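As a warm-up, study this chain.
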Amino acid sequence: MTTGAGRGWLPAVGVAALLGSATVLALPSVLGRAVDAVATKDRPERWLLIAVALIAVGIACDLIEVIAGTAAVAGRTAWLRNQLVERVLTSGPRDTFDTGDLVSRLSGSAADAGRAGQASITAVAMAVPPIGSLVLLLLIDPWLAVAFLGGVLLVVAVLWIFTRRTAEISLAYQQTQGRIAATLTEALTGLRTITAAGTVEREERRILDRLPQLHEQGLRTWRVLGRSGAQAAIVGPLVLIAVLAVGGIRLVHDLITPGEYFAAAQYAVIGAGLGGLTGVLGQLARARGGIVRITEVMTVQPIDYGSLRLPAGPGRLTFDEVVVRAADDVLLDHVSLDLPGGATIAVVGASGAGKSVLAALAGRLRDPDAGQVRLDGVPLGALSRQALRTAVQCAFERPVLVGSTVGEAITVGRSGPAELLTAARATRVHDFVRRMPDGYRTPLATAPLSGGEAQRLGLARAWTAERLLVLDDATSSLDTATEVQISRTLTNDPRRRTRLIVTHRAATAARADLVVWLDHGRVRAAGPPGLLWDQPGFQEIFG
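Now compare it with the structure written out below.
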């Protein structure tokens, strides 16, 4: 961990907290000495000056603890969020967590977990004065220590029960928040469909269905906090009463001095204040819940890349006995294909045949459960990240465009103006972007894009592929004329890259060099489109 993780501030928090606790412990003894000095007329001024100095040190320690603690929490939270974002992005497209749940973990759970270090130090520092008080009372009079210990043990029991109950409730509360956020995000993504279907009220009920559960968990938290606070409020004064009673008896019998009695009373107050730890322990319980939720994300293994580069080659793509499973279902069942480099290959099949899964394997958006995928003889998993992502690019049916401008949505920071225009012209993006007032500098958020135009931007973004271009139904929203133009560009690609095109259009398949027909996760046939056209069932997959 680096200083940027917020841990560089924790030593300052710890030193300030412990020094502050030391001043809290020293002050009653110093004031007790001052009381005895007044009684014996033995220069009480020096003890009062020491008391003032201790108070000043305590105030300074409190200020340092607040400033350093805030910086530590902020730094740690920022570091955790960076780690979460990095892990989510490097893990590739997976369905392990819903989007809304991830946002909840990133915003709420990371903030809770970020307080763990500072809250732990605060809890330890707050426990030091009562322990020190017990030791100092033992030095003053053993019976005072016995009275003090009996009351403090009751306070500790209250705190232990509170901590155990709060940890469980806090985690459940955070999990319910994540589920509500996931449902809300899902509804926002499909808001147009919900509005068109007239199911707004139903979706509202579905989103808010867990609110009573969240409300009940919140109430349980406050009940535990209130009950523990009330118990601490009752038990705490018992510590003071017990010490004052025993101390009074010892004072009457001249076994302790008035100053020692005063100090004992102050130490009893410190012990009674141990119940104030409920707030800090509540923070620790929430931090523990946040750590659990963050750990669940961090245990997802990122995509491992190798260190190899691609040798010179045409882009030959090989699937060797590839198997892909999902739960109890087999998505691809021992698929073996040897696809020639530089060719246009159409992948067709009925819905659920495994076309998108095959495309995802080719782009290494997922790895097979068995078998191997190779590009020009090199396993995709053995390639370095740069070698893989330079050679292979993907475009999708519903592209998610990123960047602040239309131009950045194409280049995504990887290429310059020349490459941008080449990709834009090849995919007919230039035709509509040049009509925008600011051209490629048009803000992406306000650009009036149709579904087909968004698909063309996604295709342009993938156009920089050097060896393999994977299109997963990436032209499905294009009008017929534009689709024909782009298909011709793909077919007559001067760079002779391998083009793997998932399609539902017969015309696109007819223009391909080779067609792969998938059926229930298996290769039913593969060959030139003319040979497959008359096979039984082939024409039916295009409707």
